[in-house]
Amino acid sequence: MRRKFVCGNWKMFKTGSEGADLVRELRQRVSTQAQIAVAPPFTALESVKQALAGASIQLFAQNCHFEKQGAFTGEVSAPMLKALGCDGVILGHSERRQHFGETDETVNKRLKAALEAQLHPIVCIGETLAEREANRTWEVVSRQIRGAFAGLDAATIARTTLAYEPVWAIGTGKTATTAQAQEVHAQIRGLLRELAGQAGADAIRIQYGGSVKPENAAELMAQPDVDGALVGGASLKADDFARIIAGAR
Ligand code: PGA
Q1: Residue 174: its pLDDT value, please?
Q2: For ligand 1, what atom is nearest to the CA of residue 9?
Q3: Is the CB–ligand 1 distance for residue 176 below 6 Å?
Q4: Is the CB of residue 162 less than 8 Å from the CB of residue 186?
Q5: C-alpha distances in angstroms, 115 versus 25, 42, 64, 225, 248?
Q6: What is the number of domains present in the chain?
Q7: How far is the CA of 12 from the centre of ligand 1 (A)?
Q8: Ligand 1 atom nearest residue 90's Cα
């Protein structure tokens, strides 16, 4: 039985003090067996970490560079995030692929760096609306997964989490139906059997992301291959995020 995993992706929202306020409210409201994380912007990591002291909520970053250090103005490395107290990092989010030139190859390099730094990675994958309408969903998603995991052995792949986020569902209010989500998640599980073996495929959590709300979270996460959620907009309000978490059973 996989432990459900719900992560809040704050994107470019919340200053340090706003983020600390949010998690102070959240920690009062959350009591769950599920794994819970928040991913604030880099500038809020330190104050959110302090506000989370003693809580079981984990701290994730939203990206990391693939080199440990160097002349990469504006970038932050995986060991730096680890030293700050981060537990994990989101990688390959569609907004990074769309706006910042992220490719399967750079996701692969960042993933290797995150794993080497002992950060738990959430690797995001998902098709655009045009790709779905052209019946290319599986071609795109499977290419992204194979690309992200290139050169990794089964045991290493088993240390990751995937987040299936159809791009057309992100921030649009258009959630995939439970059937649409489960269909792709089951296909992903099948590919994981090939890449990570049966035990790895059974262990890896596959989150769903894209307009997850308190109203649809429990039903989505009740699907056999939906092991949690990556939540954007609704993770910015303690009440909404706490209600989503309550749906992770
Ligand atoms: P959303 O974003 O919940 O606001 O649709 C999800 C994400 O981008 O991770």
Answers
A1: 83
A2: 9
A3: no
A4: no
A5: 31, 19, 11, 24, 26
A6: 1
A7: 12
A8: 9
C-alpha 127 to ligand 1 mean position (Å): 14
Give kind and range of the element (H or E) at residue 229.
strand 228-231
Q: Which of 95, 102, 165, 185 is catalytic?
A: 165
Residue ID of nearest Cα to ligand 1 atom 1: 232
Q: Which CA distances in Å does 92 have to 159, 239, 242?
A: 16, 28, 26
**Residues 149, 155, 161, 167, Cα dihedral to 10°:** 20
Which CATH number goes with the domain that contains 103? 3.20.20.70
* Structural domain for 194, as ranges: 5-246
Q: How far is the CA of 37 from the centre of ligand 1 (A)?
A: 14
pLDDT in tens, 187-228: 999 999 999 999 999 999 999 999 999 999 999 999 999 999
Express each pLDDT in 141-198 by its tens digit: 999 999 999 999 999 999 999 999 999 998 888 888 999 999 999 999 999 999 999 9
Whether 35 and 4 have beta carbons less than 8 Å apart is answered as yes
Indicate the helix (H) or strand (E) that contains 147.
helix 137-148
93 carries an active-site annotation: yes
- Cα distance between residue 172 and residue 188, in whole Å: 24
Q: 8 in ligand 1 pocket by Cβ < 6 Å?
A: no
Per the CB < 8 A criterion, the answer to whether 102 and 96 are in contact is yes
Number of H helices, E strands in the chain: 11, 8
Instruction: Tell me if 230 CB under 6 Å of ligand 1.
Output: yes
Q: Would residue 120 show up in a list of annotated catalytic residues for this protein?
A: no
